[in-house]
Structures are given as structure tokens and as C-alpha cells.
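Translate sequence into C-alpha cells.
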Amino acid sequence: MRSLLTALLFASGSAALIAQTPAWQPSPGHKQVPIWPGAAPHPQQVAGPETATTRTKDHFVAGRPWTYISNVSLPTMTVYAPTVKNTGAAVVVFPGGGYRILAIDLEGTEVCDWLTSKGITCVVLKYRVPGEGKFPKSGAYPRSPVALEDAQRTIGLLRFHAPEWLIDPHKIGVLGFSAGGHLVAAISTHFEKRLYSAVDAADRESCRPDFAVALYPGHMLENTSKDFELNPYIPVSRQTPPTFLLQAEDDPVDTVKNSLVYYTALKKFGIPAEMHLYVHGGHAFGLRRTKQAITEWPTLVERWLESIGITSQ
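Result follows.
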């Protein structure tokens, strides 16, 4: 199985196979809000204006098309309120896309459809991705700090607005896929100090997540000849939050060692961690159910959240 993201980013493709709009907009009834009151810190070069692209004839997931955003320079968050009894929990979702694009529905808004049906406030973070700009190979911290800055800022905003948005400030977590899974680990280990100068009262709130879910994460391995060593820019400590990991052994994009090396580091520091590995499943399946057992993972996360006291009554 080839990576959908790789195929989309590098294949020329026919214009007839895509539907493209100038910028992404959430579904009616929801509004994306800039997370910075002015210009975002450390602006980076991007290849052009933000666009939202849907492949209408190919690269389907579970038989359906999906949409990705490229050239994001204005980060926003979109808040989805629970559709059933509010548990007080909230999750910030980091869509994947190799820090070059964001799979905004497959690994973003569709997550909110699920979480809000379980009484959990869901926030989709449209974080900055440089695309073909200054950092074409990777937008991962520390080479590019902007995605982590956006994540730190968003968690602070949730805690600042917790009373207004009916959120328990002690039940705010993060969930991400692929590169977004790496961002989960980054914010789980970089919360004691912001990467930017404080801009308002929200930046005085803690940006440490209370729990974390990383699905088929990447960028977790040290980029050296060593076979199994954690990326040194993911400094796990005793303050790293409880974490759920899931990955397939036949993942063709991010080797399963990404989850294994992070799990090993978490256990070294005694962090409560739950990991699920499957023989088959590939990469970039989001929440869409297929014949593969790995796509039943939302049920596992629901049970885990209850077991750590996030959704228990």
C-alpha cells in the first residue's frame, strides 16, 4: 500500500480528478477562529495561498474521498460542542500530513463527529504547515517551531476559556495522526516553557495536555544510523501525560518502531501508557471503518479514557 499523502504530494495528477477551493471552511454552524490576536510568531515562507483540495476520483479511504489543506500560514481552531451530555473533557485534534498538508476531514472533523457524540468537546487545530516553502522536507520541531507554537497556544486558550466553553481544565487532551501524532508527543514533552513570548492572559495558562493519543505517529526516531533511539527533541519526563499509542506493523510510511521507541521511553519514566499494535492496517485510515481490525480503535480509546478517569462519571 502506498502512502496516500505521498501520492498526493508528488504525483502530478489530472486537474479533472480534484476539486480545489481557495481556503477551507468548516461545516455550517461552526466557525474557525484565529488563535493569535495579531500576526503569528516566527512567520515562514509558504508556496502560495491556502487551498483546500479534494481528490474526487482516486486515493479514496474506505471508498470515500477526503480533503487536505496546504500552505497554512494563518492557524485557526474550530470548536465543536458535545452533542450529548457534556463530560467536561476536551480534545485538541492535530490532523496529519507530514507537516506539509493537513488531512482536515479524514483526520480532523470526522474525529469531532465521533468525540462530540461521546460528550467530549472537540477542537480541530489548523496548525501551520510550510508546504513547499522554507522547510519542504519536514516542519517538525526544532527545524520549524510553528506547529508546536500553535499547539501550545491552543491548549492555553482552552484552559483560559474553560468556564465559558463548559470544559474541565483538568481534562484537556490531544489526539493526532502521523505527523500530528508526532505533534502530540512534542506538546506532551514541551509544555514548561512557551516557544514564543506571551501575548495575553491565555499564555499564562498551562499548555500541558492531561492525556494524549498518538495514532500511527512519525518523526519519533532519532535521525541517525542508530536503529532504535528516541528523537532527542521529544524529552520524555515524569510529567509527560498518560498516553495511548496505536500503529500497524505494515505501516509503509512510519515504521512501527516510532510507537515502540516512544512507548519504551514512557515506561522508563513510569508514565501510564497503553499501546496497540496490529499486523495489518497500513497508514492514514483515520476513523473510517474497513475490514481491518485496527480501524475499530475508537472503541479502544473510549475505554482507555474511562479507565484513566477522563470520561468516567
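Note: The CA atoms of residues 238 and 269 lie 5 Å apart.
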